[in-house]
Amino acid sequence: MEFVEFAATAAAIDEEPADLEIQSLVADALRDSGTDLATLVRFLLGRVFPAHDSRTLDIGPRLCYEAIARAAGQNVSADDVETRLAETGEIGAVAASYDFGGQQGLAAFGNGGQEALTVAAVETRLRELAAVDGAGSQETKLDILFGLFNRCSDDEARYLARLVLEEMRIGVGGGSVRDAIAEAFDVPVDSVERALQLSNDYGLVAETARSEGEDGLDAIQLEIGRPVQAMLAQTGTVSGALEDWENVGVEIKYDGARVQVHYDGERVALYSRNMEEVTEPLPEIVATVEQRVDVPVILDGEVVAVDDAGDPLPFQQVLRRFRRKHDVAKAQENVSLRLHAFDCLHADGEDLLDAPLVERHDRLASVFDGENSREVSRLWLCEDAETIEDIETDALADGHEGIMLKQPDAPYTPGKRGQNWRKRKPDVETLDLVVTGAEWGEGRRASVLGTFELSVRTGEEYETIGKVATGITDEKLQEVTDLLEPHITAESGTEVAIDPAVVFEVGYEEIQSSPTYSSGYALRFPRFLSIRTDKAPADADSLARVERLVETGGD
Predict the structure, then answer these.
(1) Cα separation of 273 and 51, whole Å?
(2) pLDDT at 221 > cutoff 90
(3) Is residue 253 annotated as a catalytic residue, yes or no?
(4) N or C: fewer beta carbons within 10 Å in the chain?
């Protein structure tokens, strides 16, 4: 296929506002693509390489402007290109506005650029460009780009510039290409989508659909060393999860960086959430897998920075390691990393995407020799809110971000942000409540108050509305205990009565009617946020405000 044909197809799609018509145009192009099918699919998506391939062109805007200027003639500079871009707002239009085809240079093709460009030739040159490295690489890349632009017509230049800068933006997305593949080669959309999830390669899937049909698509499997998109989570509530599912899988939500582990039995490869290979900056994670795993696997997990005591450090510490390209050993001395694997996509030759979460977690544990392995993130199966609250309290106290809620029977769906994984919804409403009672803690917290009775104001009296123990660090518990101890008026076992004196700011998931507390209401999943030192009990929230919040749904 000549590149001018690709440009004409891209222009037609670019001008079409209707999604179904775009799908039909893409399908027609796929049928007519000949041997360039895989390349055409990727070019329409604005890519040179498959999504799982970490290679990039690494072309900055300035280098592209210089290549356009050189191809446009001696009287044009990169600054002129940039000025024209400021006027038009789109690099493709700028490239199309120049008269290319007559300039000579090291990388000019043929005789003065007269030979027609093909899609295959453009792909070959761009792959060569991506491989350029070392001293003089920028000049070599400039020569390659100049040679391409020097052979372009107006429309060819328009879409070459967009492709090079990853700004294709013609309205073609993954969904439209998926549906176009199904239409073009008469295969089920579900089979196409499944193959895309497993391969992460639109070009491969298009070629397979054309040559092997539905059977070929269904035969595509996970491949170690070829990363897939991570399964994603939506925000949700504990009460919602308990209503929707028979029981709830609960995991710790780590404050780290997502990592996909690929191990073929000899080599470990690590990929970030964006499928960029990050093996070299993470040697201790590589060593962990090599030492602890003895079968080929694909795992999903989180890498967390830890201090000398093994306690988690903030996410920013992880980023420093992920971005490190030099002096990795020195960086490793400053910031240690730990793997917390929470899912198993493939183990010992068997794909597990369709297996339920609990089964995948069992395989994960077996890979690491047991549920109690430090590398295996624990999965609790819970049927009640109180158990989940206890897990969240412990997770926060241990320095983690919170909890994840997961459907125990759900499959692993790469790239999907569905309802089967839910991040515990942040507290969206707060109340200022008076502390009127508390309980002494247990174990290492026996010397501090650990659970606090909360009350709302009713005139000069106070009515209970719940208890809070979540969101309070050990350091803060000591501070709160010191603040409240002078106001203890009575003790019975571990329980104490407290004279109204201290106000807490408390977040919560929702307010429900409840006979348990004297206000007639209860906070679902209350979380301590702060001590309101600026407020006296008389300034705390009233029962009337709580009733208004219930009536208006929190608005």
Answers:
(1) 12
(2) yes
(3) yes
(4) C
CA dihedral 192, 196, 197, 201 (to 10 degrees): 170
Banded pLDDT at 104 (limits 50, 70, 90): very low
- If we measure between CA atoms, which residue out of 228, 197, 232, 230 comes closest to residue 421? 232
Residue 110, pLDDT above cutoff 50: no
Long-range contacts of 121-130 (CB under 8 A, 24+ apart): 121/3, 122/3, 122/43, 122/148, 122/160, 122/163, 123/39, 123/43, 123/48, 126/48, 126/57, 126/163, 126/164, 127/48, 129/57, 129/59, 130/48, 130/49, 130/55, 130/56, 130/57, 130/58
Residue 481 covered by a domain? yes
Are 249 and 365 within one domain?
yes
Asked if residue 411 and residue 330 are part of one domain, the reply reads yes
Same domain? 475 vs 341: no
What Cα–Cα distance (Å) separates residue 29 from each residue in 5, 10, 50, 177?
A: 9, 10, 19, 11
pLDDT in tens, 322-339: 765 655 665 566 678 999
pLDDT at 113 over 50: no
Helix (H, G, I), strand (E, B) or coil at 299: strand
**Active-site option among 141, 253, 425, 467:** 253
pTM: 0.76
In whole angstroms, what is the distance from residue 98 CA to residue 111 CA? 20
187 near 213, Cβ under 8 Å? yes
CA 360 to chain centre: 21
Angle at 353 between CA 246 and CA 197, to 5 degrees: 120
Q: Contact 411/356 with Cβ under 8 angstroms?
A: yes
What is the pLDDT at residue 488?
A: 94
pLDDT score of 525? 83
| CATH number where 452 lies | 2.40.50.140
- Report, as an integer, the average pLDDT of 180-190: 97
Rg (CA), the chain: 30
Domain endpoint, select from 124, 144, 164? 164
Domain of 99 in residue numbering reads as 47-164
Which range among 104-108, 369-373, 407-411 has the greatest average pLDDT? 407-411
